[in-house]
Design a protein that fits this description.
Structural class: mainly alpha
Number of helices: 9
Distance between the termini: 77 Å
Radius of gyration: 21 Å
Oligomer: single chain
Order of helices and strands: HHHHHHHHH
């Protein structure tokens, strides 16, 4: 049973971790994945196991390609129902609502009809609401999710980089506003972990996007050079 209260392990770990800055103004996280995992070894076995289990389902980039929507929903349902920490449960419910809305936008963009009540595709407060309002541009949820109209436009325009930045900014802003029910508790550890993941994922995503852009420029340059050589021949 995870101790929700302050203990020496949580205090020592949190005091050892660097401050996390807004990921969209940094080129790399202040602590690497290897270093962060080593710091987590300061926790007891049960706490480390819970961090790993939460990360496997709720980290931004930890979903496996073979994981289906149904499998993710099953995992999330089990974890959230078993969580005794109310603040973390609330954060994870927000994450699943967020993911469910995006999943609905992507399914609809693929031309899929509204899932029937037996299909396990989303989890959270709005699954039935989305199904009932499938043909509305924002599922009648724009007042609940102010970020949704822009996300819809970016998705439909094919701007994957802009969409990822918009979604990650929304998540970062949400988690940055949250506070654990008890300072220096396990909940504070998890809040740091989920924010660290966003920083790490954006830095990786940004690096991949920059690499792709560089390769496109190289290919464009090579094509231009070949055309110039042909013109001179």
């Amino acid at each position: 049973m995870i101790n929700p209260n302050v203990n020496a392990d949580y205090v020592d770990l949190l005091c050892s971790l660097p401050y996390l800055h807004d990921p969209f103004h940094r080129q790399r996280p202040p602590i690497s994945a290897v270093q962060f995992r080593k710091r987590l070894n300061m926790l007891d076995f049960e706490s480390r196991q819970l961090v790993e289990e939460l990360a496997g389902t709720f980290y931004w980039g930890r979903l496996k390609l073979e994981d289906t929507d149904a499998e993710l929903v099953r995992k999330a349902t089990r974890i959230i129902e078993e969580l005794a920490l109310q603040d973390i449960k609330e954060w994870q419910m927000w994450r699943m609502d967020f993911r469910t809305v995006i999943a609905a936008l992507r399914r609809r963009k693929q031309g899929l009809a509204a899932p029937d009540s037996k299909t396990l595709w989303g989890y959270g407060h709005y699954v039935s609401h989305i199904r009932r309002n499938w043909n509305h541009p924002t599922f009648k949820l724009e007042s609940r999710f102010p970020w949704l109209p822009e996300a819809k436009e970016l998705l439909e325009s094919g701007d994957s980089y802009g969409l990822e930045r918009h979604l990650m900014t929304t998540a970062w802003n949400y988690y940055s506003r949250q506070q654990a029910d008890r300072p220096y508790s396990f909940s504070d550890v998890w809040l740091y972990a989920v924010k660290w993941d966003l920083v790490d994922r954006w830095c990786c995503y940004n690096a991949d996007a920059a690499k792709q852009h560089f390769e496109e420029l190289v290919q464009a340059g090579l094509k231009q050079s070949i055309e110039e050589l042909r013109a001179m021949a």
